[in-house]
Amino acid sequence: MASTRLEGRAHRFEPNDDINTDYIISGRYKFKIGDMQELAKHVMEDIDPDFAQKVDSGDFIVAGRNFGCGSSREQAPRALKAAGVAAIIARSYARIFYRNSFNIGLPLITCETDWIEDGERLAIDLGNGKVIGLDGGGNAEFSPLPLTMRILLEDGGLIPHIKKHGGFSLERGEV
């Protein structure tokens, strides 16, 4: 499997630690709106009311520690993905948010983020474990994603993977 490279622009929020799922998508929407494209119009609006209009397909969210804490509902990562967010780069994640994100095909990168500026263009090499600042700002390394996780991401998440293969399959290589 070739190494997957993502490129996009960084969207950094302040404060950047403990961004909970109610900041990602407010409870006033997640219980009333079932359509993910409609829900995506409201992502991050309690932190940045214009975020949904600023994010372009393929962009990244950059955060600090404990991103996705709070509610374990899957709407938060699903709404981010529907808004066009290609990956999240943070120092750490809430465990259930981490699992939910990979299950729906949204990659989460764990590395140092202090060097990343809002608006900076970045490249992420999922197979080789690198985040590269394309505007000359710097770079960071992270543990490359295991093949199992990259296969799930390539297939669009766990459910699309199971549908595609008729069950869980790692036939493309070793874990």
Describe this protein with a few key phrases.
single chain, 175 residues, alpha/beta, Aconitase, domain 4, 8 helices, 7 strands
Description of the molecule:
The protein is α/β, with parallel strands linked by helices. The chain has a domain at 7-120: Aconitase, domain 4, CATH 3.20.19. The protein has 8 helices and 7 strands, in the order E-H-H-H-H-E-H-E-H-E-E-E-E-H-H. The protein has a 7-stranded mixed beta sheet with strand order 4-3-2-1-5-6-7. A hairpin with a 4-residue loop joins strand 5 and strand 6.
Report a brief summary of the structure.
The chain has 175 residues and is α/β, with parallel strands linked by helices. It contains eight helices and seven strands.
Q: Which structural class best describes the helix and strand composition?
A: alpha/beta
Spatial ordering of strands, largest sheet: 4-3-2-1-5-6-7
Largest sheet: 7 strands, mixed
Relative strand content: 15-25%
Series of H and E elements: EHHHHEHEHEEEEHH
- The total strand number stands at 7
Mean pLDDT comes to 90
Fraction of helical residues:
25-40%
Assembly state of the chains shown: single chain
Query: Roughly how many Å apart are the termini?
Result: 12 Å
Poorly predicted ranges (pLDDT <50, ≥5 residues)? none
Q: Which CATH C-level class of the domain at 7-120 is it?
A: Alpha Beta
Q: Tell me the overall shape.
A: globular
What's the CATH architecture name of the domain at 7-120? Answer: Alpha-Beta Barrel
Query: For the CA atoms, what is the radius of gyration?
Result: 15 Å
CATH topology of the domain at 7-120: Aconitase, domain 4
Number of helices: 8
CATH superfamily of the domain at 7-120: Aconitase, domain 4
